[in-house]
UniProtKB/TrEMBL annotation, chain A:
The chain crosses the membrane at residues 12-30, 102-124, 145-165, 198-218, 256-282, 302-328. It comes from the Bacteria. It is found in: Cell membrane. This is ABC transporter permease subunit. SUPFAM superfamilies: MetI-like. Signal peptide: none annotated. Keywords: Cell membrane, Membrane, Plasmid, Transmembrane, Transmembrane helix, Transport. It comes from Azospirillum argentinense. PROSITE patterns: ABC_TM1. GO terms for molecular function: dipeptide transmembrane transporter activity.
Length: 336, 308
């Protein structure tokens, strides 16, 4: 078991180094010298430029710079934002809970709706419900989510006035961030009004970000269930006279869940990518919106650090899913 | 069966032996399966329609997409109050005809899809073939590099590449192409590895075929099916991601009538004139959905084993 986990981890290390190298190159691929980019239009006297280059280590050979960079990364030093002068790492850490809260709820929404829909579609294969679910999920899968968000705002926020248009919390409230998760922080502070406000703010972004994963989960659940329902042991269970619900819920679902769980794990990338669009539309103060703003402000250290941290998050989650999969399914553990 | 040609027997006699039943041509068989899938047929029809409209945009579009009619600013679609027959789907905030812009946008989107799929397929195919055929260190190097690309969320990677290259339609297409290369590379590699040790490949190798011939002439034709499916689905990814980049201001720049860009530039009229935001989104959704339907249908028809 330990050996399996170690193998998996060791496979991720080269990928991590590669991503680090890519983000290291990023700031050097951007047109213009990093320092000239930093000082902007005002210009800089040549001797000061040389001085700064030396201070930042830019006059050293590239491999040396890369080692310096890696050394910094491993200590959590990702440079300083050009705009705010704050450490990129601390900015990311402050904003990340907002993204995480949104992504977690989106995934919850996708699973809570997608899983039952997929199961029922499989059980009633060929029915109107099945066709409906498959049609809707293919539409969801094809949805340009930035437009979908605008439609929902137009209908629910502007038209019906049910939900707020943007942000995380009503201006009426202020809650001291403890965990960074608004739902938890408001409850901990005992501000139930603020909790409701936070929940209201979450609904539309959650639906928008959850739409594509919902489609994926529903489709995957349906096809996994269909496969399992054709197996001999299901026929045996039915022949034994077990109730239909028990066969589906216990015998079939448990086996169908393995690929579904994997797919849910793999959606992390989709969620963090989609967060860029969702957060931009809803002015959600998370890392996605922050990245786009960094690009628009030419804040390349922030972009560089943000990309590296998001990639690390995705890799870590994929690794966890991989390991979990091995724990759940011994055949995988031993085959490699 | 040989006919005894005895003189007494009339020529017309027997067609007694029934014609040997040949298996249908693969294309016929494919079409037979494909035709049964109503969704895929609908997708194909929509794509053909969009392709024709895109091709003949100059003829089909009622107006020049960039002409600004000063007397027709934010005219609603024709069936709403205040709508005009001259502008079937209404006009935008500077008086340009929505329908004409959508039609020219279709041309752009089809072009984006075509270029992105061609580029990424070519590079991904080459990398995948090399990795799968040679194996060993080459394989490890190529595939680890693909893993690196895959570890970034695709939209994030596209955003980063577009940020490095600078905004613009061409750079957006490049960005999206780079992002999807790993999918083709992995698919090709898997298919090539499955074929490489089969007898017919070994036979050609023994017969003296060189690596290029083996790769391109012997193995490649047998790996095409999954690639066709992936390429079709690649159109929808390309159109969707390019539109997202346009929406974020990193893709095509105004006044280019790219659908995502159109959406972004009319955002502030969302409440006053919902149609300026509605139509480009509908266009993206319908096109992407059509390609996804077609891709699903192709997968089922090309690989009946996967049909569920």
């Amino acid at each position: 078991m330990l050996r399996f986990i170690l193998t998996r981890v060791s496979l991720v290390i080269p990928t991590f180094l590669g991503v680090t190298f890519l983000t290291f190159l990023l700031i050097r691929l951007v047109p213009g010298d990093p320092i000239e980019v930093r000082v902007g239009e005002r210009g800089i006297p040549p001797e000061r430029l040389l001085e700064l280059r030396h201070e930042l280590g830019l006059d050293r050979p590239l491999w040396h710079q890369f080692l310096d960079y890696i050394g910094g990364v491993l200590q959590g030093d990702l440079g300083v934002s050009l705009v705010t002068r704050n450490s990129v790492f601390s900015e990311f850490v402050t904003l990340f809970p907002a993204t995480l809260e949104l992504a977690a709820l989106a995934m919850l929404f996708a699973t809570v709706v997608g899983l039952p829909a997929g199961i029922i579609a499989a059980v009633r294969r060929g029915s109107i419900f099945d066709h409906g679910v498959m049609g809707i999920s293919l539409t969801g899968y094809s949805m340009p989510i930035f437009w979908w968000g605008l439609l929902l705002i137009l209908f629910f926020s502007v038209g019906l006035g049910w939900t707020p248009v943007s942000g995380r919390l009503d201006l009426l409230y202020y809650v001291e961030p403890v965990t960074g998760f608004m739902l938890i922080d408001t409850l901990m502070a005992g501000e139930y009004g603020a909790f409701w406000s936070a929940l209201h703010h979450l609904i539309l972004p959650m639906i928008v970000l959850g739409t594509v994963p919902l489609a994926v989960v529903a489709r995957m659940t349906r096809s996994a269930m269909l496969e399992v329902l054709g197996e001999d042991y299901i026929r045996t269970a039915k022949a034994k006279g077990l109730a239909g619900k028990r066969v589906i819920g216990l015998h079939a679902l448990r086996n169908a869940l393995i690929p579904v769980v994997t797919v849910i794990g793999l959606q992390v990338g989709t969620l963090l990518g989609g967060a860029i669009l969702t957060e931009t539309i809803f002015s959600w103060p998370g890392v996605g919106k922050w990245l786009i703003e960094s690009i628009n402000r030419r804040d390349y250290p922030a972009l560089q650090g943000g990309v590296l941290l998001i990639a690390t998050t995705v890799m870590t989650v994929n690794l966890l899913v991989d390991v979990l999969y091995g724990v759940l399914n011994p055949r995988i553990r031993h085959s490699r | 069966m040989t006919n005894p040609t005895t003189t007494g027997v009339p020529e017309t006699l027997p067609a007694a032996s029934p014609p040997v039943s040949q298996p249908p041509h693969p294309l016929v068989e494919f079409w037979y399966h494909f035709r049964q899938n109503k969704g895929a047929m609908a997708g194909l029809a929509v794509i053909l329609l969009i392709a024709v409209v895109a091709l003949f945009a100059d003829v089909v579009a009622p107006h020049d997409p960039n002409i600004q009619y000063r007397d027709a600013i934010l005219v609603p679609p024709v069936w709403q109050e205040g709508g005009r027959w001259a502008f079937l789907l209404g006009t935008d905030d500077i008086g340009r005809d929505m329908l004409s812009r959508l039609i020219f946008g279709a041309r752009l989107s089809m072009m984006i899809g075509l270029i992105v799929v061609t580029l990424s397929l070519a590079v991904g195919l080459a990398l995948g073939m090399i990795a799968g055929f040679f194996g060993g260190v080459t394989d490890a190097l190529v595939m680890r590099f693909m893993d690196i690309l895959l570890s970034l969320p695709s939209l994030l990677l596209a955003v980063v590449v577009a940020a490095i290259l600078g905004p613009g339609l061409v750079n957006a297409m490049l960005a999206v192409s780079i992002v999807v290369i790993p999918h083709y590379a992995r698919l090709t590699r898997a298919a090539v590895m499955a074929e490489t040790n089969k007898d017919y490949v070994v036979a050609s190798r023994v017969a003296g075929a060189g690596p290029l011939r083996l790769m391109l002439v012997v193995i490649l034709p047998n790996c095409v099916a999954p690639l066709i499916v992936q390429a079709t689905l690649g159109f929808s990814t390309a159109i969707l991601d390019a539109a997202a980049l346009g929406f974020l201001g990193l893709g095509a720049q105004p006044p280019t009538p790219e659908w995502g860009t159109m959406l972004a530039s009319s955002l502030q009229f969302l409440q006053r004139a919902p149609w300026v935001v509605t139509w480009p989104g509908v266009a993206i959704l319908v096109t992407v959905l059509a390609f996804n339907l077609l891709g699903d249908g192709l997968r089922d028809a090309l690989d009946p084993k996967l049909k569920r």
